[in-house]
Design a protein that fits this description.
The complex is a heterodimer of chains A (301) and B (368). By secondary structure, chain A is mainly α. Helices cover 79% and strands 0% of the residues of chain A. In chain A, helix 8 packs across helix 9. The longest helix of chain A is centred in the last third of the chain and has 35 residues. Chain B is an alpha+beta fold. Chain B starts with a strand and ends in a 9-residue tail after the last strand. Classes of the chains: A mainly alpha (301), B alpha+beta (368).
């Protein structure tokens, strides 16, 4: 790619790629400020009344179509999933990367093999599993509820946020361990040893020396999981039925399903932007770590 | 202030690889002891066992009279400097140095005092606010040393601390570490594969090979009286020449070799043991600096000169290295650069037989 011709070709490709990504995105944002009538009159065009349609679309989406609640639900579910996931995966990946016994090797293979299982295959067993666990939990927790003066409380993992979080955490664990283990492996053992000699115990060596060094890897894992979970539709669709528990992707789907009765495309586009925005913001602020994490992980896999 | 003692220490790694065995050694208080040997000889493993980074398979290591086999590294009162510095990249130089003290709950004022003091000693007071990645190799090494000295440990452990530095800086840091030892008067154990580093820095040197101690002595004794072929070949640069041949006696004098190289041994070498090797094969060892050009020697003793072909001449400054051959034997001489010689010509050279060594080819140990 040293020749000017090669360089020109490279730029053409990159610009084409850039346009392919940015144009639809810009179209969605611009269109979210247009009314449905406008959109149908001319799908590609500038908003006639910027502030009016923009405000109307977003207000409708946020309040009337309950994006307010869906957004909050998504934030709640995704953030607690990420917190729990990283709290489990970081120490686990550290241990799997550091100790080289046969048991640990097989344990890692076992975890990674989880990536090969298609989620769709797990749905029915998971449903029954959740049913069994819910019943068991109901029995186990009934004394506690009784103590609070609540009788006949039924615990349900399906159709609940904790149930969804549990699913998200367990199904993301393989991939997260995959990223983090290979990342922890790239860190020099001497740093751990220096920490131990300086006076750290095992946990402190992990917490104050190794974990801060793994920050690019942890951020990478967090972003990938955030994007995946924020947009997660399938599991949420199957496990969440009650409207007030729905996450954003379900809310967006609900809007487009409503389109059967009256197609409000302005509203739909506004909803799309609401869904996309957090991912974009997270990406913009953390992309430095993301690229760093990817390349670092790639150097020594 | 402490002695370190190894009693029958053995280390077997998982998979049955024996890294160190029959390791018996007393490191004196305030001594600068060097562990030297080729890679894989077990020197680093021995050091890491003192640090507590490797478990001891068998035997006993004690520091200051206390057996530390089961004492965790942080309670051994040791500090270690690693080959790749192992500075914490996310902490400033100050924090790197203060970390160990902070963990041990020293008061802030005391930590500050010690860090500033160490920074002064090492000439890095301007760097305290920097992160390690903004430092050069030499500066990083200083910080790593600083991190060790602020702790004021009983024993300092150095694991090839200079091998990542360039040649010039290495020589400079070598002197600085020696000075530091004189100043701190603390027991130091230093691992290196570089025999020159070992010779210049150590009070005593432990030469290791295949997990065993070959010889423990002060540098000059090690140089003058190597106990075996390995030590003789390892210490000194260029290495000692080894020439196989027979010992014969003739009219009361003892000769080594026949044909191309035949020299009469010095009487001082002739102890009872040598008599036992009469008419047997031995290995004759002589250092390059003990082979001279006839011009360099005032008086040539009888039967000590040899005719040899000069194959290569390497001038290294005040001295030149001559690669010589005489019949099947090849050897190296270190001669004054001002002595002229021509490549591919025969030259008469003199062996300083008083400084020669004899080794038993079977056991590889020194006869004299």
């Amino acid at each position: 790619m040293d020749t000017s011709g090669g360089r020109f070709l490279l730029y053409v490709c990159l610009i084409a790629w850039l346009l392919a990504v940015v144009l639809p995105f810009g179209w969605v944002i611009v269109t979210s400020a247009r009314s449905t009538e406008e959109i149908f009159r001319a799908p590609f065009g500038w908003p006639e009344d910027w502030s009016g349609s923009l405000g109307a679309n977003y207000r409708k989406a946020w309040v009337k179509s309950h994006f307010e609640d869906y957004f909050l639900n998504s934030v709640l579910v995704v953030s607690s999933s990420l917190a729990l996931l990283l709290a489990i995966a970081c120490p686990a990946a550290y241990a799997l990367a550091r100790y080289h016994s046969r048991t640990f090797r097989w344990l890692l293979v076992y975890f990674l093999s989880g990536m090969m299982v298609p989620v769709q295959l797990l749905l029915v067993p998971l449903f029954f599993q959740y049913k069994d666990w819910s019943e068991a939990l109901t029995v186990a927790l009934s004394p506690l509820f009784a103590w609070f003066g609540q009788n006949h409380v039924e615990v349900s993992l399906a159709d609940s946020h904790p149930g969804l979080v549990l699913l998200y955490v367990s199904l993301s664990l393989s991939f997260t361990l995959f990223i983090l283990t290979s990342f922890f492996r790239t860190l020099p053992t001497e740093l751990y040893e220096a920490g131990i000699i300086d006076g750290c115990g095992e946990f402190r060596a992990f917490w104050t020396v190794m974990l801060p060094l793994a920050k690019p890897g942890v951020v990478t894992a967090a972003i990938f999981n955030f994007i995946g979970l924020w947009n997660e539709y399938f599991l949420a669709l199957v496990f969440i039925n009650t409207d007030k528990y729905k996450t954003l992707p379900l809310g967006l789907a609900a809007v487009s399903i409503q389109a059967n009765y009256r197609s409000d495309f302005g509203l739909l586009f506004a909803g799309l932007v609401i869904v996309m925005l957090p991912t974009l913001v997270v990406y913009i602020f953390l992309q430095r770590y993301l690229t760093q994490g990817i390349t670092l992980g790639a150097l020594k896999g | 202030m402490a002695e370190v003692s190894f009693k029958g220490v053995k280390k077997i790694f998982p998979g049955g690889i024996v890294a160190v065995e029959e390791f018996n050694l007393e490191v004196h208080d305030k001594e600068f002891l060097i562990l030297v040997g080729p890679s894989g000889c077990g020197k680093s493993t021995s050091l890491r066992m003192v640090a507590g980074l490797e478990e001891i398979t068998d035997g006993e290591i004690s520091i200051g009279g206390k057996v530390v086999n089961d004492v965790p590294p942080k309670d051994r009162d040791i500090a270690m400097v690693f080959q790749n510095y192992a500075l914490y990249p996310h902490m400033t130089v100050y924090k790197n140095m203060a970390f160990g003290l902070k963990l041990r709950k020293y008061p802030k004022a005391e930590i500050d005092k010690r860090v500033q003091e160490a920074a002064q000693i090492l000439g890095i007071p301007d760097l305290l606010d920097r992160k390690p990645k903004a430092l050069s190799g030499g500066q990083r090494q200083r910080v790593a040393v600083g991190r060790a000295i602020v702790r004021k440990p009983k024993v300092f452990l150095f694991d090839e601390p200079l091998s990542n530095l360039d040649a010039k800086l290495r020589v400079q840091m070598r002197t600085e570490i020696s000075k530091l030892h004189n100043r701190l008067e603390t027991t130091m154990i230093y691992v290196t594969h570089d025999q020159l580093e070992a010779m210049t820095m150590g009070d005593r040197i432990v030469v290791m090979k295949d997990g065993r101690i070959m010889q423990v002595d002060d540098p000059i004794t090690l140089y003058d009286h190597p106990k075996n072929l390995f030590v003789a070949g390892f210490i000194g640069s260029p290495p000692m020449n080894f020439i196989p041949g027979r010992l014969t006696s003739e009219g009361g004098a003892v000769f080594f070799g026949d044909g191309h190289i035949r020299v009469q041994l010095d009487e001082r070498l002739l102890n009872g043991q040598v008599q036992g090797f009469m008419n047997r094969n031995v290995i004759f060892g002589i250092r390059p600096e003990d082979i001279n050009d006839t011009q360099e020697v005032r008086e040539i003793r009888p039967n000590t000169s040899v005719k040899a072909k000069v194959e290569v001449i390497e001038p290294v400054g005040s001295e030149s290295i001559w690669y010589l051959s005489a019949g099947p034997a090849t050897f190296i001489a270190k001669v004054n650069s001002h002595v002229r010689a021509e490549v591919n010509r025969e030259k008469e050279i003199v062996f300083n037989v008083a400084k020669a060594h004899l080794f038993d080819p079977a056991t590889e140990s020194a006869i004299v």
